[in-house]
């Protein structure tokens, strides 16, 4: 399917590595498909007791591949549903999810963390959700989860202004469990995953189900998805992606 997602299963820990560092680990349709397939399959694999998500290179992920967004906005592509499968697989996942995040985590790179049970940030991590800046709306049930996690005022600023949240603030706000030096990131995330893998799997699953209503999150994702698909085909979105390609600030004042 793609070499840009590396899968390893060792000692009960299923590690998913975003491996497209030359493109800042921007997520393509094929990558979403492989991630979704792997997370869905893990539900039926007793050897996969914990799922660890990490990124190769100097950043976690730049989010969705902007070229694919632009193709939809320009009418050259109908888009794909693999991103929908991926975020829904996160919502429905009963396995513990651990994330190790370094550098920038943009868009879905941040919203996917709201579905992870333990999040470890490197001290250089920066989280951002610049959906409105791209003339879009939040996804992955983040319009529900983000205000619940950090409060409406902070969530609105992240969404509406695209403000970047550095690691220290993300920890203080409750978006992460740990902040560690960059060279300790993988070891810390792996140690937490190993601790979870030694816990009774049935009790972990039951606890997660009590704490999270996966189907309610999927319903929110579907509502967001309808708005997202509509917004992606607007004149505002075309201006946003044209400006991105031309490396200039967008001018939304000329868009009716």
UniProtKB/TrEMBL annotation:
SUPFAM superfamilies: ClpP/crotonase. It comes from the Bacteria. The keyword Isomerase applies. Signal peptide: none annotated. It holds the Pfam family ECH_1. It is found in: Peroxisome. One of its GO terms (molecular function) is delta(3)-delta(2)-enoyl-CoA isomerase activity. Keywords: Isomerase, Peroxisome. PANTHER family: ENOYL-COA DELTA ISOMERASE 2, PTHR43684. This is Enoyl-CoA hydratase.
């Amino acid at each position: 399917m793609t070499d840009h997602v590396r899968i390893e299963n060792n000692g009960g820990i299923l590690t998913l590595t975003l491996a497209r560092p030359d493109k800042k680990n921007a997520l393509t349709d094929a990558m979403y498909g492989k991630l979704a397939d792997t997370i869905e399959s893990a539900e039926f694999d007793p050897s996969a007791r914990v799922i660890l998500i990490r990124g190769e290179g100097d950043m976690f992920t730049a989010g969705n591949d902007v070229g694919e967004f632009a193709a939809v906005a320009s009418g050259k592509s109908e888009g794909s549903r693999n991103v929908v499968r991926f975020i829904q697989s996160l919502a429905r996942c009963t396995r513990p999810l651990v994330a190790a995040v370094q550098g920038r985590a943009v868009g879905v790179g941040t919203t996917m963390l709201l579905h992870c049970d333990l999040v470890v940030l490197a001290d250089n991590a920066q989280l951002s959700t610049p959906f409105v800046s791209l003339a879009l709306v939040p996804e992955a049930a983040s319009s529900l989860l983000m205000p619940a996690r950090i409060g409406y005022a902070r969530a609105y600023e992240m969404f509406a202004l695209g403000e970047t949240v550095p690691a220290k603030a993300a920890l203080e706000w409750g978006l992460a469990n740990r902040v560690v030096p960059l060279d300790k990131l993988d070891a810390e995330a792996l140690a937490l995953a190993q601790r979870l893998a030694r816990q009774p799997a049935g009790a972990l699953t039951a606890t997660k189900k009590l704490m999270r209503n996966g189907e309610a999150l999927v319903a929110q994702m579907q509502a967001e998805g309808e708005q997202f698909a509509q917004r992606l085909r607007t004149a505002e979105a075309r201006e946003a992606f044209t400006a991105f390609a031309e490396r200039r600030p967008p001018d939304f004042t000329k868009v009716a």
